[in-house]
């Protein structure tokens, strides 16, 4: 393993959160972005070739060491770690609305889901997968909610662009109000 | 439309049953699927009846969200019964808004399925288990033996300065006292001057107490005050008729 990959491995091990390219760059200020990438590829390949129990993965906020999927069952059965609590159906639906409509107010979420979402919002805020991102104009200046990088981590995706595109869903629906549509970005 | 029958054996709180559906739209979609009807041409009367039946069965008719949907369904049902314009040109399907909401909700469900799958998948991959202590964490509980505690208390007591004596400050104005004294003096003598009443009073407060007492006694008619000339001495005399009582 090359020395940069070795250093990165130590950093990933010591860090409690995913490390961004920027974080990694600070470890080796003299390296070019290409060298950084090469070290990451090297580290990833090392884990694969030697059948390590961990893998290097890119998540929302950067790169992270994760245990191999096929080992999870055994590890949880031995009660060494617990899987994070599953999100409820209500939480998932609320999350879906926020992900596609953000920034979105509670009233708008309730209109789409047809139920009160106060409690669900609070638990999603607690899990830090959503956050208050601002206030709407207009009456009462309601709080607006949006997703956080922790959501990407939860889903194991790099950006919201990896969410299914609305036109790929089996129910193709064009929102009647153009402004309410999710930004294409 | 019949009112939901209220039989006594439905004491189970509806909250428990809410889990079966994540909301009225979910229930509605479930019914539409079950009946295999075209979502763009919902037989609204039949679906509305079933909706009411189900929420009654599940004990959901206490849930505001479901009741609101039930009301909406009934409203659409009634609108469908109204005569349409002959050419149907200007006719707007009262179900259109509901259909739009249902389709939109269907999308939400589909995305929610995707989210469930992804997050479930990701949950079987563990990151490093170490978490930094949040900076605003409460201080650790103090670990101390009884002996250490007693020694500390001892030290603390020793370090205290001499016990502070509580200083009792007399009431600055003692009108009652002055009143009693003047009355006592008048028991012995027919009259006395204001200066004699003040006597050996040392402080302004004492002088004021006597003055107030004298004025108060005069007001209630216990004494009579006289002053021969301006700035002359004031004579205090018992009120004759009062003493007779």
Features:
heterodimer, A: 185 residues, alpha+beta, Arc Repressor Mutant, subunit A, 3-stranded antiparallel beta sheet, 8 helices, disordered C terminus, B: 245 residues, mainly alpha, 3 strands, disordered N terminus
Structural account:
The complex is a heterodimer of chains A (185) and B (245). Chain A folds into 2 domains: 3-77, Orthogonal Bundle (Arc Repressor Mutant, subunit A); 89-180, Winged helix-like DNA-binding domain superfamily/Winged helix DNA-binding domain (Arc Repressor Mutant, subunit A). Chain A is built from 8 helices and 5 strands; from the N terminus they run αααββααβααββα. Chain A has helices at 3-14, 21-27, 33-49, 72-77, 89-101, 106-113, 118-126, 149-155; strands at 54-59, 62-67, 104-105, 130-135, 143-147. In chain B, strand 2 and strand 3 (234-238) form a beta hairpin. Chain B has helices at residues 14-17, 24-35, 44-57, 64-81, 96-122, 146-159, 175-188, 194-198, 204-219, 240-244; strands at residues 191-193, 223-227, 234-238. In chain B, strands 1-3-2 form a 3-stranded antiparallel sheet. The longest helix of chain B is centred in the middle third of the chain and has 27 residues, at 96-122. Chain B contains 10 helices and 3 strands; from the N terminus they run αααααααβααββα. Chain B is elongated. Among the domains of chain B are: 14-83 and 93-122, no CATH class; 175-244, Arc Repressor Mutant, subunit A (Orthogonal Bundle), CATH 1.10.10.580. Classes of the chains: A alpha+beta (185), B mainly alpha (245). The A-B interface holds A 12-13, 15-16, 18, 55, 57, 64-69, 72-73, 75, 81, 83-84, 86-87, 89-90, 92-93, 95-97, 99-100, 112-116, 153-157, 163-164, 166, 169-171, 173, 175-176 and B 22-25, 64-65, 69, 100-101, 103-116, 118-132.
């Amino acid at each position: 393993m090359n020395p940069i990959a070795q250093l990165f491995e130590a950093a990933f091990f010591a860090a409690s959160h995913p490390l961004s390219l920027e974080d990694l760059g600070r470890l080796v200020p003299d390296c070019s972005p290409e060298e950084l990438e090469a070290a990451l590829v090297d580290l990833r390949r090392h884990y694969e070739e030697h059948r390590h129990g961990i893998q290097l993965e890119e998540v929302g906020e950067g790169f992270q060491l994760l245990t191999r999927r096929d080992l999870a069952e055994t590890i949880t059965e031995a009660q060494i770690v617990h899987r994070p609590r599953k999100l409820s159906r209500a939480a998932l639906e609320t999350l879906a609305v926020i992900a596609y409509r953000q920034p979105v107010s509670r009233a708008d979420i309730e209109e789409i889901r047809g139920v009160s979402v106060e409690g669900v919002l609070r638990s999603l805020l607690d899990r830090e997968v959503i956050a208050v991102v601002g206030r709407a104009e207009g009456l009462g200046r309601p709080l607006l909610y949006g997703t956080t990088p922790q959501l990407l981590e939860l889903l194991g995706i790099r950006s919201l662009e990896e969410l299914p595109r609305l036109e790929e869903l089996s129910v193709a629906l064009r929102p009647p109000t153009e402004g309410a549509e999710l930004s294409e970005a | 439309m019949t009112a939901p029958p209220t039989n006594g054996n439905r004491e189970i709180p509806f909250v428990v049953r809410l889990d079966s559906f994540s909301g009225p739209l979910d229930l509605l979609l479930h019914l539409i699927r079950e009946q295999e009807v075209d979502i763009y041409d919902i037989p609204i009367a039949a679906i509305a009846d079933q909706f009411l039946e189900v929420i009654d069965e599940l004990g959901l008719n206490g849930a505001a969200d479901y009741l609101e949907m039930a009301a909406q369904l009934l409203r659409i049902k009634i609108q469908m019964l109204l005569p349409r314009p002959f050419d149907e040109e200007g006719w707007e399907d009262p179900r259109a808004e509901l259909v739009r909401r249902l389709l939109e909700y269907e999308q939400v469900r589909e995305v929610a399925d995707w989210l469930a799958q992804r997050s479930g998948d990701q949950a079987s991959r563990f990151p490093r288990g170490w978490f930094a202590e949040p900076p605003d964490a409460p201080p650790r509980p103090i670990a101390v033996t009884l002996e250490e505690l007693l020694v500390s208390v001892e030290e603390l007591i020793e370090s205290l300065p001499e016990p502070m004596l509580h200083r009792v400050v007399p009431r600055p104005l003692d009108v009652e006292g002055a009143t009693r004294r003047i009355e006592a003096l008048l028991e012995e003598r027919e009259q006395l001057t204001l200066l004699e009443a003040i006597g050996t009073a040392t402080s302004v407060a004492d002088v004021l107490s006597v003055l107030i007492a004298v004025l108060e006694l005069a007001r209630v008619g216990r004494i009579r005050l006289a002053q021969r000339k301006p700035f002359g001495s004031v004579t205090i005399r018992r009120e004759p008729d009062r003493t007779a009582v």
